[in-house]
Amino acid sequence: MAGIVLEKGKTIYSYGQPMTALHLITNGRVDVSYPGGSYPLGKGDVIGICEICSEIHLLSYTTLEDTTILTYPLTSLDSLNDILQKHPDVARLFLLSCFRQINILLNRSSISELNCSELYRTLNDDISTYKSLCDRYRIPARSLEHFDELNAFLGDDSPDIWLNGYYMGLNHILASDNYRIMVQEVDLPIGMLRKGSLDFRRTYQSLEEQFHYLQQIGGFYFRESGNDLFDFYTSLYYKLGQDNEDSKVVYDRIQRVLSKAGDLSFIDQNLFTSRAQSFQSSLSLMGSADSADSGSSDDSEILGRLAGSLNTILEYAGPDLDTVASFRQHVHAYKLLSDRSSQDQEVTLLRRQLTEEFYLLYSLLFTQTLKQPDIPMPVRMFLYFGYVDEELAGLKNAVILYRLAEAMTDHSTAGVYTFYDWLMAIFRGQKSPSRNEFDQDYSDYIHKQKVGGNITDAELRALENNAMAKVNYELKNMFPQVNKITFGRITTFCPLFCADDVLKDLESSYVTVSRVSEILEEIRLVDYTAFYRESLDMPHLDVMGKETIHLEYLPDIILMPNVGIRGVMWQEIEGKRRNSPGRMVFSIFHLEDLKTTFTHLTGEFRWELCKRVQGNRWNDVSVRSMTSEYFDYIQFYRKNHDLSTEAKEKIKSSLQRAKNSFKEMFVRDYMIWVLFEGAGSPRLNKVARQIMFTYCPFPEEICSTLAQNPIYSELLDRRKIKVAQGLHHLDVLTRKLQNGNIPVPETVEQERYYISGSKKS
Fold first, then answer.
1. Are 432 and 575 in contact (CB under 8 A)?
2. What is the pLDDT of residue 291?
3. Dmax (CA) of the chain
4. Are 551 and 535 in contact (CB under 8 A)?
5. To 5 degrees, how large is the angle CA 129–CA 132–CA 134?
6. Does 534 score more than 70 pLDDT?
7. What CA–CA distance (Å, rounded) separates 584 from 602?
8. Cα separations (Å) of 262 from 208, 224, 275, 276, 499?
């Protein structure tokens, strides 16, 4: 019979494949796998001999080196018996291999059964010690899901103890010179193989049961969800700190698990490795001021405080176990991904799950801050930046975020809000919730709910003054959409702060109040009327009558907890009040040029506000306005004799790039107006310049500079006439008030600035 050579690493059979043949190994080695372990076969052993009474393979066989085998087809036990009777030497090899393998499995089963009992006792002791330490330090003890369902291992179906001695005895006989008596006896070899196969199956089933039991125990120490005993102990260690007298007890328990779990087949080794590395990383940072990653001793101290951030955040969130457990599991899975921006279906689904849970968690944490004002730093970092985990954020970034959060103060008086501070302003009644995607403000929404029969009159009245309902409206309608938009990369969006998203220096991209104020002032020095609204002087109505004035309402700046590339002009007014601040939204870490983005949003603001004021006639050129004139200019640019052929081609090209959006065209021209024309660098065509000059005028200082350029001569002449007329009207009004011994309101002087663009009277 010719032998077949199998190369190293070849899988001969896997679990579940049909039993069709036996294979005698004449050279080489084969690894045999069973639930919970493996053993080797060598020269003279037979592959499949223990499984002759099974229709399928229960064991898996893989070559450990180049291996030569002889194949014996197994059509039936009768055919096997014929082989055994014709070839006594083959029968002997078959029996020896069968009994040897059964003895191996019997020994493994005995050891595994002892492990089941021992690990059950260890698990109970670890849980008891954990609860005792938590009670001692008044720390709420977490509970292991399904632990109450675990009972001590009974091993009722374990193989009989005497079987091991029985097969060892048979092996001794077969190994001696007396083996011929056994193999030559008719039906004896096949009978012993049949009994061996049945005993093998029972032993296999016992090993399988033990392995599943051990997997259960292992699952209490390491779970994908992170809600496991290893996490209980590491979190407790972080809370107690290294100097606590009981920290050594906790540390020893952790190290015992780490030293043993790496060699246990019933532990998910990928999960174990990840969790062990995470702990070791945090551990080194807690105590080492000289660590290469920690930098200074201050950094080391901060990272020590941040160790186990996810646990701190989730424990603070409160009793919503479903959200907490699910989020913990998905965060751990997200950390293990090699490519978090992958478009694979599984990764996309994970990002979606994390996104949904993130917003639920944000709501839970916000609610808790109202009850527990002493907010742990990782929770503050979550609310401000979307931070969840020190490793996911990157250790260097985590330290930066900690320091930023530590120095964070409420800047609402300056009109700049973190999203958390923005929610607090809504809760306190200082701000109204934003409009939703259907342009409904909170009041519109609840009244439509009443009209639709979804709520009663009593519920409507209650909701009108329900602070938390207003917060939830903002969380549901504005937060998810704007957070994704400002992030910019919508297809790969995940709201968790991740080092992968930090594409430039974190501190330089941080949007500070001073930087916002600086940029806002730079824009206002060019387009000084950008945020002015026409209004009646309500405080001086008895004096001013229906005399209209213009008042400035600077926008509210809301900073989303993400690292992003876009800004959003979310709404131009608050509710239906025209004389209210607009709302512009940025990532709190903005990777693009902030001034360029701010200027873009200001252009959007101007367009939308004009549309709001003009209503349905926003594009009616018979009612002169910025939007109507610009609309007319773009719509009929081909027929405009004031435009050169070259200018028309540029408009055509720009319109294509803007996807035929008149608004986008205006915004691009506005940015050129502010960033270039305001600096004395003409870039716009004649018609666009005229519209901008009329509705987005430069202040007097810039106009004086532009007077040297003949391009602006005609426009400046018209402006002088208009300014003179406006100032003359105010002079008449002022004299009238003075003649009547009526104090001139301060707003009159403010109006002079609006008309002239000069602070001088």
1. yes
2. 44
3. 140
4. yes
5. 110
6. yes
7. 9
8. 20, 16, 11, 10, 28
